[in-house]
């Protein structure tokens, strides 16, 4: 979260019209020290963050409390136990997921990671040509399963809106029928939760703006800004500028509207789970 905190401080300093030198003086710091904080390279104490925010004109107690909560939450995150196998950017994705209030996700070819069964996840992960990934596949499956906790926790469960292409419901070559059936039955099960919405993009859908890329958009508690994420093998590319996030949100909204309604989507998943296609 250092990088996000640094970005938040940098943006609020800019809104306040203060130079790096002016802001650093309020803490009796050198410019380079605050610069490293703003780029996520240096840890900062909660009291120093509170002082900076007030200098930038941010005085709302709830805002200051939320920012300092993240700094003071010194518990050991569960994913730190996998630090030897998780790329830093992947760990960042998990940390952000754990804080997200709402997640909007679209993956053209696969079931989203936070909805994958262990067998499905293992098949996807172990298909990697990288020997290192194959060696750690079981541990990476454990990580992927642990990520689901954000959707089922008793308080503050994350709201998930996702679109899955109908093509992702087909059994993959070389996979067993049980693997895919169990995955689809799991989708039907989790779709019963009030905080999870699954819509299917049918095979006969017209060309739409989401065809070129997967995307995840995360929304957080105030004052943390939303961000967009494009997944790749070792984590993802984060986009935090408001115009970038807005562009991805616009594409997701178009994809979401083009997909089948929830009830029809559930019917499609049921048909595939019984071994028949949507035709």
How are the SSEs placed, and which strands pair?
Blueprint: H1 2-15, H2 20-25, H3 31-38, H4 46-55, H5 61-72, H6 88-99, E1 102-107, H7 118-125, H8 131-135, H9 137-146, H10 149-152, E2 159-165, H11 177-190, E3 196-201, E4 215-219, E5 227-232, E6 235-239, H12 242-258, H13 262-273
Parallel strand pairs: 1-2, 2-3
Antiparallel strand pairs: 1-4, 4-5, 5-6
Helix pairs in contact: 4-5, 7-9, 11-13
Task: Give a written overview of the molecule.
By secondary structure, the chain is an alpha/beta fold. It has two domains: 2-72, lambda repressor-like DNA-binding domains (434 Repressor (Amino-terminal Domain), Orthogonal Bundle); 81-273, Endonuclease, Chain A. It has helices spanning 2-15, 20-25, 31-38, 46-55, 61-72, 88-99, 118-125, 131-135, 137-146, 149-152, 177-190, 242-258, 262-273, and strands at 102-107, 159-165, 196-201, 215-219, 227-232, 235-239. It has a six-stranded mixed sheet, sandwiched between helices. The longest helix has 17 residues, at 242-258.
CATH class of the largest domain: Alpha Beta
Termini distance? 47 Å
Number of strands: 6
What name is given to the CATH topology of the largest domain? Endonuclease, Chain A
Average predicted confidence as pLDDT: 89
| Biggest sheet descriptor | 6 strands, mixed
The CATH architecture classification of the largest domain is 2-Layer Sandwich
Number of helices: 13
For the record, the count of structural domains works out to 2
Radius of gyration, CA atoms, in whole angstroms: 21 Å
């Amino acid at each position: 979260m250092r990088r996000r905190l640094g970005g938040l401080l940098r943006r609020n300093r800019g809104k306040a019209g203060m130079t790096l030198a002016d802001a650093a003086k309020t803490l009796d710091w050198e410019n380079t020290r605050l610069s490293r904080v703003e780029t996520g390279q240096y840890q900062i104490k909660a009291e120093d963050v509170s002082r900076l925010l007030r200098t930038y004109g941010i005085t709302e107690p709830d805002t200051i409390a939320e920012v300092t909560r993240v700094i003071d939450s010194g518990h050991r995150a569960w994913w730190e136990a996998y630090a030897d196998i998780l790329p830093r950017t992947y760990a960042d994705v998990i940390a952000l997921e754990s804080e997200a209030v709402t997640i909007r996700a679209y993956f053209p070819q696969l079931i989203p990671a936070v909805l994958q069964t262990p067998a499905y996840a293992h098949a996807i992960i172990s298909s990697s040509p990288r020997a290192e990934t194959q060696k750690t596949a079981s541990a990476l499956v454990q990580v992927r399963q642990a990520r689901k906790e954000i959707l089922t926790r008793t308080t503050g469960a994350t709201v998930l809106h996702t679109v899955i292409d109908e093509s992702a419901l087909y059994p993959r070559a070389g996979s067993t029928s049980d693997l895919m059936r169990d995955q689809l039955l799991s989708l039907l099960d989790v779709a019963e939760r009030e905080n999870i919405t699954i819509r299917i993009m049918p095979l006969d859908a017209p060309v739409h703006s989401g065809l070129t890329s997967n995307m995840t958009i995360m929304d957080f508690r105030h004052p943390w800004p939303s961000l967009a994420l494009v997944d790749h093998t070792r984590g993802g590319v984060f986009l935090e500028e408001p115009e970038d996030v807005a562009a991805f949100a616009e594409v997701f909204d178009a994809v979401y509207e083009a997909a089948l309604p929830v009830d029809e989507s559930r019917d499609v998943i049921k048909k595939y789970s019984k071994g028949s296609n949507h035709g």
